[in-house]
Design brief:
By secondary structure, the protein is an alpha/beta fold. It has one domain: Metallo-dependent phosphatases (Purple Acid Phosphatase, chain A, domain 2), CATH 3.60.21.10. 18% of the residues lie in helices and 21% in strands. The protein has 5 helices and 14 strands. It has a 7-stranded mixed sheet, with no helix packed on it. A 5-stranded mixed sheet has the order 5-4-3-2-14, with no helix packed on it. The longest helix has 12 residues. It is globular and about 45 Å long. The protein starts with 11 loop residues before the first helix and ends in an 8-residue tail after the last strand. The structure holds manganese (II) ion. The site of manganese (II) ion has 5 residues, from loops.
Length: 269
């Protein structure tokens, strides 16, 4: 299925003004469940944008079967930050997670793509992520649930994984399999969790088109726009901006938790 680039792709605020006339956006106030997840459901715990500030987190991280981190886990992408994140994933709070940890994005803040590329080459940064599954345009299937992660974002400052809006963004999203159950991106789509405090919408128009018209995941988890933290739906897809850090880079937003029904015949083991 070939999707077209929206004429206002490069101006997401204007694109959304037009698109929103045919769109439903309902905010959801979901409470973290305080009972164990039933045997036919997987509990998914989502965080994003922790920016090497996990030592300052004051909330408890709930138990879950899968932990998803949607990127921006360091401040500047240095090797010691990656090592620290990797041990945080496996230590203390993390032990409660019986499943695999997923991330989709290597650090992006305050580091240019070139520098990052060099960092990855020099230190093999990804090799240090031993306690999770790193998803860069890749899928992992857990208990029959298909999770796809992709780190790309519409160009923003000089951060890593930038791509120009329009056809280049769309071509990244074209790689997302149509049978994805949980999509993890770093960027929000336009219209959900993407409203900046300046009043500008920073989400990707082509990502919204792709998730609504082709991929139709049950859940779309992302971060990036810290002030967009929260859950919303268009009536079909649940959109989750799981940014842990707020606008002031304080790690104050608790994880967002949901239970996803397992495919028929599959039980948690
Ligand atoms: Mn961030």
């Amino acid at each position: 299925m070939k999707l077209a680039v929206h004429p206002l792709s490069k101006n997401p605020t204007a694109a959304w003004e037009e698109l929103s006339q045919q769109q439903k956006v309902v905010k959801i106030n979901a409470k973290t469940p305080n009972t164990e997840s039933p045997s036919d459901k997987l509990r998914v715990v989502c965080m994003s944008d922790t920016h090497s500030l996990t030592p300052f987190i004051k909330f408890d991280i709930p138990m879950g079967d899968i932990f998803i981190h949607a990127g921006d886990f360091t401040k500047c992408g240095s090797l010691h930050e990656v090592i620290e994140f990797n041990s945080w994933i496996a230590s203390g709070d993390r032990h409660k997670h019986t499943g695999t940890s997923i991330l989709d994005n290597i650090p992006t803040l305050g580091i240019s793509k070139d520098v990052l590329a060099e960092a990855i080459q020099t230190h093999n940064v990804k090799d240090y992520l031993t306690n999770c599954v790193y998803l860069e345009d890749a899928e992992v299937v857990l208990h029959g649930i298909k999770i796809y992660g992709t780190p790309w974002q519409p160009e923003f400052c000089k951060w890593a994984f930038n791509v120009p809006r329009g056809i280049q963004c769309l071509s990244k999203w074209e790689r997302i399999p149509s049978d994805t159950d949980i999509l993890v991106t770093h960027t929000p789509p336009v219209g959900h969790g993407d409203l900046c405090c300046s009043g500008v919408r920073a989400g990707c128009v082509e990502l919204l088109t792709t998730v609504q018209n082709r991929v139709k995941p049950k859940y779309h988890v992302f971060g990036h726009i810290h002030e967009g933290y929260g859950i919303s739906t268009d009536g079909k897809i649940i959109f989750i901006n799981a940014s842990t850090c707020d606008l002031n880079y304080l790690p104050s937003n608790p994880p967002i938790v949901f239970d996803i029904t397992l495919p028929p015949g599959i039980q948690k083991t």
